[in-house]
Each structure stands twice: as structure tokens, then as C-alpha cells.
Amino acid sequence: GEEVAQTPKHLVRGEGQKAKLYCAPIKGHSYVFWYQQVLKNEFKFLISFQNENVFDETGMPKERFSAKCLPNSPCSLEIQATKLEDSAVYFCASSQHRQKPLHFGNGTRLTVT
Amino acid sequence: DQQVKQNSPSLSVQEGRISILNCDYTNSMFDYFLWYKKYPAEGPTFLISISSIKDKNEDGRFTVFLNKSAKHLSLHIVPSQPGDSAVYFCAAGNTGNQFYFGTGTSLTVIP
Fold first, then answer.
1. Do B21 and B62 meet the contact criterion of CB atoms below 8 Å apart?
2. B105 to chain A: nearest residue by CA?
3. How far apart are the first and last CA of chain A?
4. Helices then strands, each counted (H, E), chain B
5. What is the mean pLDDT of chain A?
6. Beta-bridge mates of residue B21
7. pLDDT in tens, A75-105
8. A59–B98: do the CB atoms touch at under 8 Å?
9. Residue-wise pLDDT tens for chain A (113 aa)?
């Protein structure tokens, strides 16, 4: 597609439950990025992929967070045993090439209660 | 440690005048810089970019200036329109690696 599609738009989970977020990058884009926006205007990098390979995972809290980008499937970001501080908007972005702009989806708002 | 900073949280400008949004960065290895516009409940929308080999890039009403020695970039919007009212983020990165984002400047264009 021509847009980055993120589902679901909203997700509510009780503390300790699992959350799984999905992202379909723009067709033909090789790079996928996940960002977490906790405070209103702060974007925290989580992980990036080049096709199905992890490119940079320096931002991932590895104990509970995992992500995948498999061929012919949407990319996913999974949080095991969610905590209150995981409440945030999670943005996915894709880009065509290493020095091309990131194009963002509209985000998934995760609320952990 | 914030590698990209936008020190002005907000800016108000009269319609038709110039809007200048500023951004500073600390990492001299950054070689690609972008500006995004964001409305509430939407993802950031790409506006304009510049690579470190240039000092200016123009696209319609939007111009980005890069001063590598000062580690500073700015976005000029001329003329400003009410529809430009949004939060503007600058981002910087080192080709293909993660992009670091500033904390945004909320622009209000007054009709």
C-alpha cells in the first residue's frame, strides 16, 4: 500500500497481560522502524529492521519487548507482561532506502491499566 | 541525553509572515536531517530533508538550512498559513541508523 498501516488504533491491556501491535510498511520499503511516544512530544527509538533482519535494536527493553518482520506478513511488536509505564503511542515507520525519509503510520495507543 | 534539541516549545506567527523553527544537535556524525509536521492523533508527516553535503534545501514554501559548524538547522515557512498550525519535529541520524527526534515546536499561525 501507499501508507504505513498500523493496527489496532487503540489497545487496552491489564497490567501483566500481553500486547501485540502490527505494522504494514509501504510496499517496496526495505526499512521498518518502531518508536515509542511516552510523553507528549518525546519519540524513543525501539528497533529497526532491514527487510526481515534486525538492523538496530539498541532501544529495545529486551526482557519484555520483542519484534519481528517476516516475509509476506505485517511486522509486529509484542510486549509480554505489560507494565503501567508501557502506556504510550507506538509508531511504526518505513523507508525505501537508508538515506530516505521515514514515513509514519498513525500509531497504536496502548493503555495499560 | 538529548542529541537533538528544539528549545522553543511554541511559536506564534501572523498569517503571511515567515515562521522560523530551530533545531540543534550534538552528534557530528549525523549526516541526514528531516523535518516533520504532526497533527494530534496522527503520525508525523514528512516535510523536507537535507543531507550533510548541502546547506540548503527548498520545497515550495518550506526551506531547510543546515549549519554544520554550529550543529544547527532551521525550517523556514514563507508565507505562513493557518493550515501550517501543528507541532513540528526535527530529526537527525547517521545514514540508515536510528533517527533521533527533537521534542517539537508547536506552531500557531494566527489568521
1. no
2. A41
3. 34
4. 0, 11
5. 93
6. B75
7. 999 999 999 999 999 999 999 987 788 999 9
8. yes
9. 689 999 999 999 999 999 999 999 999 999 999 999 987 678 999 999 999 999 999 999 989 999 999 988 999 999 999 999 999 999 999 999 877 889 999 999 999 99
One-letter amino acid of A44: K
Residue with the three cell numbers 497533527 = B39
- Residue A20 pairs with which residues in a beta bridge? A78
Given the DSSP bridges, would you call strands B99-101 and B4-5 parallel, antiparallel or unpaired? unpaired
Cα separation, B104 vs B91, in Å, equals 10
Q: Beta partners for A21? A: A77
**Does the distance separating the beta carbons of A99 and B95 come in below 8 Å?**
yes
- The verdict on A41 touching B (C-beta cutoff 8 Å) is yes
